[in-house]
Amino acid sequence: MDPAQLHQEMLVWDAHRDVAYEAPLSERFLQGWMTGFDMHLPLVRAGGLDCQTYAICVAPELDLPPTAQAFKELELIWETQSSHSNTVTLALKSDDVLQAKAQGTLAAWVALEGAEPILNQIGLLRGFYRMGVRSIGLTWNWRNAIADGVAEGREQGGGLTRFGEQVVREMNQLGMVVDVAHMTLQGVRDVLRVSEQPIIVSHGGSQRLCATHRRTSPDEILEAIAEKDGVFCATTIPETLAQDPAQATLETFLDLIDHCVRVIGADHVGLGADFDVFQSHLGLPPEHWVKGLEEVDRWPRVTAGLVQRGYTESDIRKIMGENLLRVYRQVVG
Q: What is the pLDDT of residue 86?
């Protein structure tokens, strides 16, 4: 099996990257970064990326109220897509992903990372759906009207509120993918109980590899997500890949994929890099990134690594994108 040819032919989907809410950062965008999406076209092409889920994260320190900030960023996304229609396609249905790949454009899903923008109003949830949002991470790090974020405490943090249960059920009805990446363990268990559709972890790590990080999951959570026919997406955040983040490498990322596949099978594992955190948001220098997997142009190395580790072509295709396509096809349509 030729890794380079396989990578070019198959669907490659990254389940998590923030849109650049600091945009425009002149030092980035003057170097070819697309305003409105945290995207550098030469890197995307070099990485063979076909589909990117972009998350709007409304951080507490931003000046506007969360709903206004999210709508502002959504408008910027739509404006950017309109002026770059030959480069990026906003995906509203799963077939849009395959059509974009056939046309040679990047398919982009829009998500919320943290449901603060919907406040405590189901009507706002429906409004975001009409604006093109097809996935929501129910919490970021902090408590909102839906549930506790993981920074509230791994054990002490609460689960879904009654409003949160209503939100999950409404997302099932609308056709929105539920993402539990930043939730407490109790919150994840509650979502698994309430949701009638598969759920995802858009970017996560394993406690087996890094037990001390608050956003790594025990095997029981991976198994429960798989039982719901969901997908756990491996992240490149160094602190979740190694006890010493400076030792995080492409190989430790592949170790994370290996562990997830051993626990829940290749049908339930995907990719969720979160590359942007270390560049656009935190501005950390390259030595603090995952060595060998620093940016989107390095995705072919993951395919080559899976081939080298003995994965079948079918399993590689699933991990690199087909599993997420299955979930989005079932939930979104």
A: 92
* DSSP assignment of 133-197: EEEEES-SSS--SS--BGGG-TTT-----HHHHHHHHHHHHHT-EEE-TTB-HHHHHHHHHH-SS
Range of the domain at 89: 3-331
Q: How many residues does the chain have?
A: 333
Q: Is the pLDDT of residue 28 over 60?
A: no
* Cβ contact 194:165 at 8 Å: yes
Distances from the Cα of 227 to the Cαs of 35, 59, 184, 268, in angstroms?
39, 33, 19, 9
Can you read off the two tokens belonging to residue 19?
């849109």
33: β partners: 40
Q: How many CB atoms lie within 10 A of CB 282?
A: 9
Nearest to 114 by CA among 36, 213, 16: 16
Question: What total of structural domains would you count in the chain?
Answer: 1
Q: Which residues contact 186 (CB under 8 A, 6 or more apart)?
A: 148, 157, 158, 159
For the stretch 126-151, what's the b/e string if a residue is b when 16 or more beta carbons lie within 10 angstroms of its beta carbon?
A: eebbeebbbbbbbbbbebbebbbbbb
Contact status, residue 94 vs residue 134, Cβ threshold 8 Å: no
Domain harbouring 21, CATH code: 3.20.20.140
Angle in degrees, 0-180, between the axes of helices 219-227 and 250-264, rounded to the nearest 10 = 60
pLDDT digits (tens, 9 = 90+) for 118-159: 999 999 999 999 999 999 999 998 889 999 888 875 555 689
Residue 29 has pLDDT above 50, yes or no: no
Alpha-carbon gap, residue 179 to 182, rounded angstroms: 8
170 burial type by CB count under 10 A (0-12 exposed, 13-18 middle, 19+ buried): middle
